[in-house]
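Readers outside the structure-tokenisation community will struggle with the description of the input data as it stands. Showing the layout once, in full, would remove most of the difficulty. For illustration, here is how one protein appears when written out as sequence plus structure tokens:
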Amino acid sequence: MSIERAGQSGMRCLYEQAVGALVSAASQRDRTAEGHSYRVTRYSLAIGKILNLHANDLCDLKYAAGLHDIGKVAISRKILNKLGKLTDDEFEILKQHSAISIRILGKIEGLQSASLLVKHHHERYDGRGYPDGLRGEEIPLGSRIIAVAEAFDILTSDVPWRDAMDQRSALAEIEACSGTQFDPIVVQALRTALEEGLLER
């Protein structure tokens, strides 16, 4: 192995450790966060591979999917754990976690590309998302992938107000939002990944 390749391997290991530490820190506020981040990462990478993403893009996607909720470390537990509908003021506070994520991750040189994917994973394909109201292909592909992967995990997980859906029912829910909330190409990739058995929990 060349010195250059050894250096790159060492840096990647360092970034992996940093991501793991940040995910662990987030899980201290929310016991479900670590499992959720792990599953969203697996689902995102499965979708990314179906879409033939380049290895470097898959690496950024892996980091971003693992850290997509890191900004929530600065959001009140009262808001994060509220069972009922958030008030408008509470929702505005929750939306700040995207900007907080950028401030946290932007300080780590090797995570700057991933941080942009994290920032925009709450954008909607129809432009009605946040923080910037991007639409369609204005939204980074990695962000569009994470949005679908996260929705799939939430729908297939038990939450206080409903039981988990089976994977086929969750896919149907997501497909109903294809072209509005979600990128149709990414939704189709999710279907392909499910059919190929890549989304086992």
In short: Residues 1-7 have pLDDT under 50 and may be disordered. The two ends are 36 Å apart (CA to CA).
